[in-house]
């Protein structure tokens, strides 16, 4: 990707759960700062611990503040370390998810994050999908209210069926339908669509059409090139066109860099002067 005209109109946040992964978690904010970034996001950073010890929370806060990096977004307990895809709709995780919400919201608020991401969770063998969806709505209402209390949005994400065949939200339309249900239930209007261009492209969606159709629901954008999930320029996507489309659609939020490094310098496509959050 040589032309960065459209990229220059956007702000970027680096996902420290997938980038700088060769370093211990607490060293990653400083590494991001050294690379020129001033904003970062995280999947749930404590593995299966839904209520980590205060010392662990304080250490993560210190790592961000010492590095001068703002946290922009945080996943609620997602169980990605266990191979899961979130806990929102899982009957066995009802109490665990609900106990995590205030912990995650407090951590997010303390570091300036304005987005909480709630991964929906896989279909559970033997469970009624309708019951899972009803539980998901109850849990997402709780999470949306907690997000509202800290001035944040609640993000609902579509994944792709190739990599997450048991995840029910594998299209933009399915994710937006849940967004609309949550907003109707709370009246807060702070549930938003997490438009992950990598997942949508792997799912075969027309990315320009998705941006145009759901511009008013998009709360965050994440990127990786397809099909390998590497940095822009390593795959098939035209990011300058996509960035221009997002600008034209009125998207002014940060774009999350959520890719696996494919080259020696995974940020070579983005000039250093464009890395600091605006």
What does this structure look like?
The two termini are 21 Å apart. With 278 residues, the chain is α/β, with parallel strands linked by helices. The chain is globular. The longest helix is centred in the middle third of the chain and has 21 residues, at 129-149. It has eight helices and eight strands; from the N terminus they run βαβαβαβαβαβααβαβ. Strand 4, helix 4 (129-149) and strand 5 form a beta-alpha-beta unit. Helix 1 packs parallel to helix 2 (54-67) and helix 4 (129-149) packs across helix 5 (172-186). Strands 1-2-3-4-5-6-7-8 form an eight-stranded parallel beta barrel, surrounded by four helices. The mean pLDDT is 96.
Question: TL;DR?
Answer:
The protein is built from eight helices and eight strands. It is 35% helix and 14% strand.
Spatial arrangement of strands, main beta sheet? 1-2-3-4-5-6-7-8
N to C succession of SSEs: EHEHEHEHEHEHHEHE
- Strand proportion: 5-15%
In terms of structural class, how would the helical and strand content be classed?
alpha/beta
* Portion of residues within helices: 25-40%
Number of helical stretches of at least 4 residues: 8
Number of strands: 8
Contiguous uncertain segments of 5+ residues: none
Radius of gyration from the CA trace? 18 Å
């Amino acid at each position: 990707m040589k032309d960065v005209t459209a990229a220059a109109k956007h702000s970027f946040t680096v996902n420290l759960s997938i980038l700088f992964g060769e370093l211990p978690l607490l060293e990653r904010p400083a590494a991001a700062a050294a690379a020129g970034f001033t904003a970062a996001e995280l999947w749930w950073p404590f593995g299966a611990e839904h209520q980590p010890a205060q010392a662990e929370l304080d250490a993560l806060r210190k790592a961000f503040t010492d590095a001068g990096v703002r946290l922009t977004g945080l996943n609620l307990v997602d169980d990605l370390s266990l191979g899961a895809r979130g806990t929102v709709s899982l009957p066995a995780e009802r109490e665990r998810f609900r106990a995590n919400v205030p912990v995650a919201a407090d951590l997010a608020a303390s570091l300036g994050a304005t987005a909480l991401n709630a991964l929906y969770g896989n279909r559970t063998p033997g469970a009624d999908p309708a019951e899972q969806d009803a539980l998901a709505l109850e849990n997402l209402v709780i999470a949306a209210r907690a997000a509202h209390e800290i001035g944040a949005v609640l993000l609902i994400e579509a994944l792709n069926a190739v990599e997450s065949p048991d995840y029910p939200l594998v299209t933009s339309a399915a994710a937006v339908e849940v967004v609309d249900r949550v907003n109707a239930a709370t009246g807060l209007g702070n549930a938003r669509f997490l438009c992950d261009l990598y997942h949508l492209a792997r799912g075969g969606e027309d990315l320009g059409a998705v941006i145009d159709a759901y511009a008013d629901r998009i709360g965050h954008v994440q990127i990786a090139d397809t099909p390998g999930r590497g940095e822009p320029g390593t795959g098939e996507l035209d990011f300058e066109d996509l960035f221009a489309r997002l600008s034209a659609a009125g998207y002014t939020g940060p774009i999350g860099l959520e890719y696996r490094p494919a080259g020696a310098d995974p940020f070579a496509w983005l000039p250093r002067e464009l890395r600091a959050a605006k």
